[in-house]
Structures are given as C-alpha cells and as structure tokens.
Design brief:
This protein is α/β, with parallel strands linked by helices and 158 residues long. Helices cover 31% and strands 19% of the residues. Helix 1 (15-27) crosses helix 2 (44-51). The longest helix has 15 residues, at 134-148.
C-alpha cells in the first residue's frame, strides 16, 4: 500500500462516484477513508457493483464521524478540495502523508469541516462554471500529488 497519500470521502452521496473512487484508490495503490454517514447503504453487494472487482484491492477505513476520522488520521495534513479553496491545485506543494478529501456531491462539506482542513484547494476552471464531479476532482488532485511525490505505482513500465 502506498503510504505517501490517502484519499478521503466525506459522506458520499452517490454510490457510482464512490465506486469510481474505490477503483482509483485500488489502481493507484492508495488507502481510502470513508467518513459516514453515506447517502446510500454501504454494503459489500452495492460497493462490489459500483467498484466492480476492485474492492478487494483497496484498504478502506470507515469512520463513524468527522471527529473519528480526524482522531484516526491525527498527524496527517488534511487537504480539502473545495470550490471555496484559498490555494490553487496547480500551485500547491503536496507532502508525504497528505490526506486528500472530497465532499458530498450534493453539498460539499459543512463550514466547520472546511475550517478544520489544513489546506483548501480549488481547481481552476473556465469562467462561469461551478465545479467538477467529485471523482474527477479527486483524480486530478491525486494525479498531481503522486506526480510531485514520485508516488505512482512501479508496476508495468515501458
């Protein structure tokens, strides 16, 4: 398991997005944190459908609340992706041990959770557009972080 980086989902709403992020974490050898409650029933059957056969290839830690998540990840820098960010993703320096968190598809994260994040990143976009899908946003951020940290898996190489 890649210990450079973790991905966290704050109260995910849509199982298909959670499944896509499970697959991302599996393929890039990242651990995944899920902060509950989810907007859907998280069970093996549903997550196997959403995450296909990748569920067995990712370490998933489920947390009953944001406080429980923070206690479990004490000492890690929490990097939140948010449209209200104060740092641009393309100008941010990631560090080993960072946890990249995305909010709920329908509502992001509460103000208190955003305030608790160590860093709040926004993804620069074309004027007049609101936001990316959380799975796409997480993919951009994870890709940027792994590139900076030379953390991509060493599997098949040309």
């Amino acid at each position: 398991m890649n210990s450079l980086l973790r991905l966290a989902l704050f109260q995910p709403d849509i199982p298909q997005n959670a499944g896509a992020l499970l697959r991302l974490a599996a393929c890039l050898d990242l651990a995944l944190d899920v902060i509950e409650p989810c907007g859907f029933l998280w069970d093996d059957k549903r997550m196997r459908r959403a995450g296909m056969d990748y569920l067995d290839h990712v370490a998933v830690a489920r947390h009953s609340s944001f406080a429980a998540f923070r206690a479990a990840r004490a000492g890690s820098r929490l990097v939140l992706l948010t449209t209200g960010g104060d740092h641009r993703l393309d100008r941010f320096s990631f560090a080993a041990g960072d946890v990249i968190m995305v909010g709920r598809e329908s509502a992001g994260v509460p103000d208190a959770v955003a305030a608790a994040a160590d860093c709040r990143l926004l993804i620069p976009m074309a004027p007049g557009l609101r936001s990316l899908n959380v799975a796409l946003a997480a993919t951009l951020a994870v890709g940027a972080a792994l590139a900076q940290l030379d953390g991509y898996p060493r599997g098949e190489q040309p």
